[in-house]
Fold this protein.
Amino acid sequence: MQQSNWWVHLLLLLASAIAVFPVLWILSTSFKPRAEVFSTELDFLPKTFTWENYVHVLTRSDGIFWQWMGNSLLVAVFTALIGLALSTTAAYALSRFRFAGRGAFHYGIFLTQMFPGALLIVPLYKLVDSLGLLNHYLGLILAYCTVAVPFSVMMLKSFFDTIPYELEEAARVDGLSHFGTFYRVVLPLSLPGITVTAFYSFITAWNEFLIALTFMSDQNMYTLPIGLQQFVNQFNTDWHYMAAGAIIVTLPILLVFLIAQRYIISGLTSGGTKG
Amino acid sequence: MGARNNTWIAYLFLTPVIVVMALLVFYPLLQGIAYSFSNMNQYNMGSKFAPPSWEFIGLNNYINLFSTITEPDSVFRDVLIQTLIWTFVNVFFHFVIGLGLALLLNRNLKGRGLYRMVLMVPWAVPSFVAAFSWTWMYNETYGVFNLVLQKLGFSPIPWLGDSFWAMVSVILVNIWLGVPFMMITLLGGLQSIPQSLYEAARVDGASAWRQFWTITLPLLKPVASTATVLGVIWTFNLFNVIFLVTRGGPVRSTEILVTYAYREAFLNWNFGVACTYGVVILSFLLAFTIFYQRLLKANSNEGVYY
């Protein structure tokens, strides 16, 4: 290992500044009164600090923002749970068993990464429409499962791969069944991995824009990304409100992400899966 | 090693996923491919009030796309070229900047964990929030970029109002978003290279530059190639950034295949044409992946490991 020199720190500081600037800039915008936001003066910090934008976003139209947040939470939580429920056993089988068609199954899961949303969205739209589930939570959850399930399988498999097989052999010798070994030995040991996978499915659903925009046309059913679009009009955008809304949506995710980064990184790099 | 052969239980464990994937992914995929040979639109797709009346029209959608490709005002050709520029430039900079930062972070230096955490911020920001934030910074009158430019005595740039600058703008947003994934993946690859190789090289008097080309790059290749394939697939299919920052404008100049397919489907309501675009996208990605894997296999004996 070489001694670090000043230019390494200089480059990393520059890169760090670029990485955080857009976030800090909307944070600063979110605390500025309207007149300062729409001003040609260059001020990096608010001259008059105000919570007014946040108050407006959270209370406008009888607090519809809370409704959207509830919609987003509900859809994201159920997407993550259904994704997990369906994929844990499959990922375990992929990690532990050799069987005919294993390679094909694995490749099929990889292929789904390639399917353009543009090709799937029309048949899915028709399917959800024919089930009468447009503008319904379940329609959105179904559509998100098309991404969450294969993704969860890939990620969980990479976590199961890291659990020593000897532990299961010991459990089998002690008389546990296949399912018993899975539920009593493997699942508890891979709890960090399962949490991270669930968090990732949650984020994917929380951030999804295209399908939500297409499926949810009733304002009461919007998720947050679509709701925030309400501040964008044809001619002007209420950037001060938009900034406050964006910060509310981002902050919880950003905090969890940075706190859990070690687990998230290990899961993603070993699985080589979606980011 | 130690894996079991109880096939029936493996299939039992896989059944839920197979059923769901078949119903929600592979069946719709086949439907989508079928629709690409049809004239389906909002009016003939069938509803509570009218039975479906769309028909298969053979290769007409494909012929309409590809026959115009030599004409000067071919939308498809423009969108295709823009897609290739968008994908290539993004993945190139993701890789170069990501590799540069990974090499810096792989050194023994103070504050490494903190740098890594801060550099990961763009990854943790939802892409629609990033799109809002950058669109605001690009604002011609009140945006921070033009305010800084003017303060420094330059003239303001029409970031989103000019077809060249609009492309630069959306690409910048996506470079910002995509570098952390590449950086973290490549850093993982770098950390798995045994230090003893570098020590041996130093004993033999190899320069840092030579160590980079003969040890680091060849050994990074498996990780780098997987990350690049995924990067190309995701970038090619990326919808949010362009749709939210420029809506494909001005005058289609930042439209790529996926955003244009969406426009055909849910703004023009031509489902058949939209699916044709989808099939074209899928064919490109499949061809790319197969070609890239062949290429890697052909060159895979170049390592210095043995």
About this structure: Residues 301-306 of chain B have pLDDT under 50 and may be disordered. The two ends of chain B are 25 Å apart (CA to CA). Chain B touches chain A through 100 residues (CB under 8 Å). The longest helix of chain B spans residues 75-105.
